[in-house]
Write a structure and sequence with these properties.
This protein has 167 residues and is an alpha+beta fold. The chain contains three helices and five strands, in the order αββαββαβ. It has a five-stranded mixed β-sheet with strand order 3-4-2-1-5, with helices on one face.
Length: 167
Amino acid sequence: MRPHHFRGVEEPNGIAVPDDPVRAAAQVARRALPRYAEALNAVRRNTLHQPDPPHRPAAPDVAESLTLIWYPDGVVGAPSASVPAEARTVLYGCYFQYSPHEAAFVLPASYSTEARALLLQSAVRQLTAQGIGVNFRHAAPIPSVPPRTAAPALGAPSGARQPAARR
């Protein structure tokens, strides 16, 4: 029996018994043992109807990893310095482009969302088959700059009254 077989089974509580051994035995037989038998039958039913959950092996250990960064404009990229040499061929095969100005491998946003998803899925599948781990993260948000306010006009303060014009 496994721990998941006990899930949902109400456990029997203890009972208070008198000092007299004969009466105590009678109360245990009448009150406690039926509860234990009922709980045991429920666990046995669970073992028949709930097979063992599938065993999911742990992820394999990887010697190298690649971090793909998702930018707000839809581009997915990785700095070229962090891309293992074995991963470059896979990235090129999945339509990543090397951008020398950004020093990064990028999957342009010009592809449709579905095409980018399929290309990323293919790249991840091929990289993990080679033993290269793949991590995803969002790019750091660009700090917003507070809007500039117009400089006050030289002359009278903004709250001062102007003299009435003469006619």
